Amino acid sequence: MSDIPADVCRAPDKTGEHCPTLPRLARLPINRCNLPAVILGGLTFQRHPTRLQIDGIADLHKPLWALLDDIPEAPERAERFAGYMQKHFRLQQPEDAGLSAGQTSARAKASYLRVLRGWAFDAESREAAVLKGWVESRFGLCPRHHGGPLREPGSRAWQRYVEMRAQGLRGTNALESQLDLLYAYSQYELARQFPQRTHLRLYRGVNRLSEHETVDDNPQGDKVLLLNNINSFSRSRERAGEFGDDLLAVDVPLPKLAFFSQLLPGMLRGEDEYVVIGGLYRVRRARF
């Protein structure tokens, strides 16, 4: 006999809000950071984020963090970071990185800055495919759209995405490693600029909201959306509202901010853009 009522024993041990999980087709079984995709891409992570670290980056670049720690002003830190990137990856001396004289100059210029400019210009570009592939590799979140829905690996749309990603990486100098370090620097700056914050309220204008991947829909206005593995948001409600018929408000965890407009001089400034790693998000329609 038990002194605990049977209806208590048979009740679920967790009550409250239904919490959908990240679909299997939206994630890889392995990645290159400290949390698996099923966790970092889920709703629990959105509510209770923790630090994300790409394997090896913090230890490999210890001299950079020690240098930045002694600089009080963000603009000077950005200048030092850009200089470190240029020297570490030999961005001005591509021959030191193995680029032969016969290779085109365009490939020599394919740096992290070129990827960000390409993304800002067109989220379906070759540079955008590189960025989506980087998120897929490092965080294990599969892209959901690139020039068309990516629902089936091996489909024509998927083959096109893989081809564009390969073209974007061909003949480059450790381009994905450059993005690794840029992400780590972004997280460093966020920790210094927002020491007491865990989230930022960001906005995104969208068209045809009904066509987005909705995992859960609350009649009161909340939705759970499966976002592409990387997305553009803005801190400006007015600026975001220029890009769609519906305006979404999302509380984004700082660890899922890949890059943002104030990080480096002249980067993503046009829309006050914040580039957000995807997965499941609870979003709310906001008023224009």
Topology record:
Elements: H1 6-9, H2 37-40, H3 43-47, H4 57-60, H5 62-69, H6 74-88, H7 105-108, H8 112-121, H9 126-139, H10 156-169, H11 175-193, E1 199-206, E2 214-217, E3 222-234, H12 237-240, E4 246-253, E5 257-260, E6 273-286
Antiparallel strand pairs: 1-4, 2-3, 3-6, 4-6, 5-6
GO molecular function, one term: NAD+-dinitrogen-reductase ADP-D-ribosyltransferase activity
Protein name: NAD(+)--dinitrogen-reductase ADP-D-ribosyltransferase
Keywords: Glycosyltransferase, Transferase
Describe this structure in words.
Pfam families: DRAT (PF07357). InterPro entries: DRA_trans. This protein is of the alpha+beta class and 288 residues long. The chain has 2 domains: 137 residues, no CATH class; 90 residues, no CATH class. 36% of the residues lie in helices and 18% in strands. It contains 12 helices and 6 strands. Strands 1, 2, 3, 4, 5 and 6 form a 6-stranded antiparallel sheet that branches. Strand 2 and strand 3 form a beta hairpin. The longest helix is centred in the middle third of the chain and has 19 residues. The radius of gyration is 21 Å and the shape is globular. The N and C termini lie far apart (61 Å).
